[in-house]
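Example record for the data management plan.
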Amino acid sequence: MEKRKVVITGLGAVTPLGIGVKEYWKNLIAGKSGIDRITLFDPEELDSKIAGEVKNFDPLNFMEKTEARRNDRFTQFIWVASDEAIKDSGLDLEKADKGRVGVIIGSGIGGLQTLMDQHDIFLNKGPKRVSPFLIPMMIADMASGIISIKYKLRGPNMCIVSACASANHSIGEAFKYIERGDADIMICGGAEAPIVPLGIAGFISMKALTTRNDEPEKASRPFDRDRDGFVISEGAAALILESEEHAKKRGARIYIQVSGYGASADAFHIAAPEPSGAGAYLCMRNALGDAGLTIEDIDYINTHGTSTPVGDGAEVSAIKRLFGDRANKLKMSSNKSMIGHLLGAAGGVESIATILTIINGVIPPTINLDNPEFDLDFVPHKQQKMETQSALNNSFGFGGHNAAVVFTRYEEK
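Corresponding structural encoding:
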């Protein structure tokens, strides 16, 4: 069976740099940081007191009070991002064949705030006072389920949970559903709302988070010698993928083509990456092979770049192994230097940035790269203009889960 070409027609985002794609992109290319002291609760007892919060988010601006009460913060985020993406795409879902419109939204953790709140009720008021909405508000797949229910979409529907690779895997798998003809339209991406005391305490105990509390905007330092861990963040991203045939038939504006997807496992450790980057290398190699591209075809890499001592080094090793001398000619950057790490939503918001990089010919910077540890071009401090034909977006997660997606400038033939 001939593979169908897959294109992107809609984007939606809720991020620490703004609600909506326009605001997110404007602040990203300006090198603005979205990191600050935590305000969602008092973080004084925690060693890490900073995060990338979504500022000024009021769910009542986007949904009825009843809906807001029945959705955890992470599903509220994807509700908003999906609505923006659908409107951006110009889709009229009432006219679509809803049996061929699917949803894959990833989340690494799901409704952690709901779990904490209801656990407190269980301990203080007893089991009979636990909300009947505990389970449906908490489980990670509800991000995907709620979008399907909202728009009455009956195509493939699932949630991919692969830690910080969840959104990238979701985009890749949605791409494959359309490519092989199992769907015409897929809404995909990721959602996360992990900024709660228990979640942050867990990451602190793993020594994964930065403790640079007195300089929040300078705390996320991918590829810098002085990095000491990542900054936890929240948000969501939604992308509308369509078969080229379907998009052209309805006269849609096409952003870009999804041309390749690769996945692999480190098979090494529950939290640490394989030091040589062997799994990341295999993942990127698979993505290029799937796209039918060579290393010479890639102009830019949106790195996973979390700002952890071990993770950044493993990714650099993988890039150098795959690209060889070409690695020194590539532009790369880490969005996490500005937005922090959105965990299961990271690959979604970073894919949007990668797409806009190609479309606009502007590479977002890696801020806080004052003392580089590696000899690659991570576009430090300020944006750079550069024509980009094809770009790679990397995401790697706890458990050794790796996902890479290749985006290519769309050319109608």
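Summary line stored alongside the record: The chain has 13 helices and 15 strands.
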